[in-house]
Design goal:
With about 240 residues, this protein is of the alpha+beta class. It has one domain: Jelly Rolls, CATH 2.60.120. It has 2 helices and 10 strands. Bound molecules: calcium ion (3 copies).
Length: about 240
């Protein structure tokens, strides 16, 4: 019985340790003018709890989309990235890398501890070289994703969040307001969203063919010729 109690206590301590960031590793970054501060530990699974940048989509039907994000943060495992289309179709680009979170609701801790800096722009696209869930997995907690590991291009990995891939958007009308959003699910480490871009490939149907003035002119000429032929024929044979 005593061994069983000790075992349960060991598991509890282990679980608690997994849910707390190591002391002394966390860093808070001050807000930057012109950027949006990401609400620290504010993410609850909703877009309203995220920092977002709105991007106007072009006219046409979506063939493909890619996303580029420029931001700074001191703990990528805190972060969830989402793209929201004008019709509210939502793709989770990244969901707290390094943490198998139980749900897309901001609970649990802590994921990968590596950092992001403004000098590096991260690209997300279908077929990207690295799963977003593995972001920062090969570097230390004070090193920079992309800048230090050379891994700057990622494939969307929704984990428990909505969506599958950028193919979710294919066939939608691109026109309207899209959002690129970042949520923070862990206390202490902070960051700023400074830039986002969506690269669209769209299909624009050709305009309907409107007969030109020349076309009408030709039709009138043809009609007049036919009328004249009928008159000549009637005079000759009737
Ligand atoms: Ca995850
Ligand atoms: Ca860090
Ligand atoms: Ca945080």
């Amino acid at each position: 019985m005593r061994i069983f109690v000790l075992f349960v206590l060991f598991l509890s301590v282990g679980a608690f340790a997994q849910q707390t960031k190591p002391a002394g590793e966390s860093v808070s970054l001050p807000p930057i003018e012109g950027c949006t501060a990401i609400p620290d530990d504010g993410y609850d699974g909703t877009v309203a709890s995220m920092a977002c940048i709105t991007i106007a989509g072009p006219t046409g039907e979506v063939i493909s989309v890619e996303a580029e994000i420029n931001m700074e943060h001191t703990w990528v495992g805190d972060l969830t990235y989402k793209v929201v289309a004008p019709d509210s179709t939502t793709l989770t680009l990244m969901s707290r890398p390094g943490l198998a979170e139980p749900a897309d609701d901001g609970s649990d801790c802590c994921g990968d501890s590596s950092d992001l800096r403004l000098a590096d722009t991260l690209t997300f696209r279908d077929g990207g070289a690295t799963s977003a869930e593995l972001m920062g997995s090969t570097i230390a907690g004070t090193q920079f994703v992309c800048g230090d590991d050379g891994l700057c291009e990622y494939a969307p990995t929704p984990d428990t969040g909505p969506g599958t891939s950028f193919a979710d958007f294919v066939g939608l009308q691109a026109a309207g307001n899209w959002q690129v959003c970042v949520g923070d699910s862990g206390g202490l480490d902070t960051g700023n969203l400074c830039g986002a871009n969506l690269v669209f490939d769209v299909y624009v149907p050709p305009p309907p063919v409107v007969p030109s003035t020349n076309f009408y002119g030709l039709m009138l000429l043809l009609l007049a010729t036919l009328s004249a032929a009928v008159v000549v024929y009637r005079k000759k044979f009737i």
